[in-house]
Specification:
Chain A is mainly α and 294 residues long. Chain A has one domain: Formate dehydrogenase/DMSO reductase domain (Formate dehydrogenase/DMSO reductase fold). Chain A contains eight helices and two strands; from the N terminus they run E-H-H-H-H-H-H-H-H-E. Chain B is globular, with a radius of gyration of 17 Å. Classes of the chains: A mainly alpha (294), B alpha+beta (201).
């Protein structure tokens, strides 16, 4: 028995730990990678994205202390975000496998010029791609909704969280693509694609991080005597997340445009992005403080 | 019928009788407390006050834990008591995080109180608990079904804990709420609508 347990005050969140952090990271990165691969029309990267989401699901499964009951997890979609998330992941797996199967049967899953997905004349194929894409977006954001529904943790009770998770899923997906640039067949097109979207995503990510840090959440004063725990991440963590996920990749990409040398800068920027995306999840989970019961 | 409780903070002397009665009666495993007394000191000499807050599941009318539960293991009885079906719990701990009152615990490992191993008492009472499943106070629903008060209420030597039907204007709990000033509930801003009221200092 710890004496401190019986003193009124806030306490660090200890229910969810490393397994959930890994789940959040791989789930988001996988969904983001799938979305970007969908836009690029790269079957290999779509498959990698699905594999990452599957890996995340394994971590979530290990986290459960009664995994034999896991089938029950989809029974309450009307009220539980875990239920909704599990159903979304099932739909994502089904839709993405169906779409990838069609692509591979047509034998054109390796182009990245966009002609096989949104540029296709086959409306049904496009429809399947849209379903898979929507499911991937849902997979990327649902953890944000899940955490935001936890009333006991002021840091998580934040409206920006789902959008922040979506942006960092895309950044994580970009990170994976940048770490493995040779896996894509047409590097010039890849770079052209990045040039079109990365600045937008990163600026949006910057705005999301700033919003997340500044929004004031319910702090628990009415009928309660405690001072509420902090509802923002420490400045050092925010700075490190922004530096690794926004500034370092932007600076290195600008440098790459001027000087060349993408062989080194692409993977380094990618690793930096992945580190930032991981650190965001780590900070949100590990630094969360539960409000005092009184 | 809506079971509820009034806790008179001024009467509580922090003797922990309620905690022991709960532990003994419900046989909660090592490290798990379905109710507890939280302490706080406020003010400075010569007006310093030591406060004791008797805490347990608030049996909320809109339980955040029930919303978070993905399997339906947490549900509400008709009399307002929030209970857990151990057979359905998946052990995701979402309910523990959703609860703003820190009222839930999970029995993660079967560890006996003494290094010599489980006592005969532990062997008997642990049959009522399942490893890997979240647990909490249920107002001693087994006793309520037999027209008995919760163990903590029965044991309290100072009359701090007042229990009864909030829907019955003649019940002790309704009278306590009606006659006293300064009744409040914890974290009302979260919309959970607890069934436990506190009477202030």
């Amino acid at each position: 028995m710890k004496t401190k347990e019986f003193i009124i005050g806030t306490r660090s969140q200890q229910e969810w730990g490393w397994l959930l952090i890994l789940d959040l990271f791989f789930n988001g990165t996988g969904a983001g990678l799938f979305l970007i691969a969908l836009m690029l029309g790269s079957l290999k990267h779509m498959l990698a994205g699905v594999a990452l989401v599957f890996l995340a699901t394994i971590f979530l499964f290990i986290e459960l202390s009664k995994p034999a009951n896991v089938w029950r997890i989809v029974l309450k979609p009307g009220r539980s975000w875990i239920s909704r998330g599990a159903i979304g992941i099932f739909i994502f797996f089904a839709a993405s496998f169906l779409y990838m199967a069609v692509l591979s049967m047509q034998g054109n899953g390796s182009a990245i010029d966009g002609t096989i997905t949104f540029g296709s004349n086959h409306a049904w194929q496009m429809f399947m791609g849209v379903i898979a894409g929507c499911a991937a977006v849902y997979v990327a954001v649902y953890h944000g909704f899940l955490l935001a529904s936890m009333k006991s943790v002021p840091l998580w009770s934040n409206r920006v969280l789902p959008a922040l998770f979506l942006v960092y899923s895309l950044l994580g997906g970009l990170g994976v693509l940048m770490v493995f640039p040779f896996a894509l067949e047409q590097q010039a097109l890849l770079f052209s694609f990045f040039a079109k979207i990365w600045v937008g995503i990163m600026v949006f990510g910057l705005l999301m991080m700033l919003s997340f840090s500044s929004i004031k959440t319910i702090t628990g004063k009415v009928g309660s005597l405690d001072s509420a725990p902090k509802n923002s991440l420490p400045v050092g963590h925010i700075a490190l997340i922004l530096a690794t996920s926004i500034f370092i990749p932007i600076i290195s990409m600008l440098y790459f445009q001027q000087v060349g040398g993408y062989l080194i800068l692409f993977p380094l920027s990618g690793l930096s992005l992945l580190f930032g995306a991981f650190l965001l999840r780590y900070s949100i989970i590990k630094l969360a403080v539960q409000r005092s019961a009184v | 019928m809506h079971w509820g409780m009034v806790i008179d903070l001024k009467s509580c002397i922090g003797c922990n009788s309620c905690v022991l009665a709960c532990k003994a009666g419900n046989g909660t495993p090592k490290g798990i407390f379905w109710n507890k007394i939280l302490e706080r000191e406020t003010g400075k000499y010569p007006t310093a006050i030591r406060q004791f807050w008797s805490m347990r599941c608030m049996q909320c009318e809109n339980p955040a834990c029930m919303e978070a539960c993905p399997t339906g293991a947490t549900y509400q009885r008709e009399d307002g008591i929030v209970v857990i079906d151990a057979e359905k719990c998946v052990g995701c701990k979402a309910c523990m995080l959703a609860c703003p009152y820190d009222a839930r615990s999970i029995w993660e490992e079967r560890i006996p109180y003494f290094k010599e191993g489980e006592t005969p008492y532990e062997k008997v009472v642990y049959k009522e608990h399942v490893v890997g499943v979240v647990q909490k106070c249920d107002f001693c629903s087994d006793r309520l079904d037999r027209q008995l008060e919760p163990r903590c209420v029965e044991t309290c030597p100072t009359g701090t804990l007042i229990f009864g039907d909030l829907d019955d204007p003649m019940s002790d709990v309704s009278k306590a709420l009606g006659h006293r000033r300064l009744a409040f509930r914890l974290h009302e801003e979260l919309g959970t609508s607890p069934s436990i009221y506190y009477l202030g200092y």
